[in-house]
Known about the structure:
By secondary structure, the chain is an alpha+beta fold.
Amino acid sequence: MVQRQPQVWTARDFIDRDGDNPQYELIDGERINLEPTGIHEQVAGFIGRKLNVAIEQQQLSSVIPYRCLVKLWGTETAFCPDVIVLDQSQLGQEPLWQREPVICRTEAIELIVEVVSTNWQNDYARKTEDYALFGVPEYWIVDYLGLGGRDYIGTPKQPTLTLCVLRGDRYDRQVLQGNARLRSPTFATLELTAAQIFAAGQ
């Protein structure tokens, strides 16, 4: 029996086909179905709402697009973050932005948030490494179901938020659980605990 080989996509072909479809992203030429649930989107929406309040309070020139791909230069990878905050003043330098919601340069990115689902390995390992090398200054991993491996969230497994702040080309990580307050270096006025975020998924 001949097994079909999975189709290998170029980033350009993927963007042309799925650039407006938040259900898919591309990793090393493989088209990945993110399989988001309603609760997953509920948590992401709550985070976006709180971030918009902080943006207004701090009078920042930031914007949270509904849909945006992060294209890693020199690769066939295009991530689709659950929440991304962009510096609007930098978007004029983005080569694709006028035609399609694709970010290719680090300078426009202020924060990326990934809400963990069944493919948690990508959020904790692959994306953490790639976002750090790409230069994303702040990255949150919101594991509201406690799905991640014990090396990442500890024992017993429980809902966990991992705050990653870039230092050089690596992230300093802070693991937040329960009522621990999230202290974002980018959004100093943000008043939010890990538990409040997890409650959005109840």
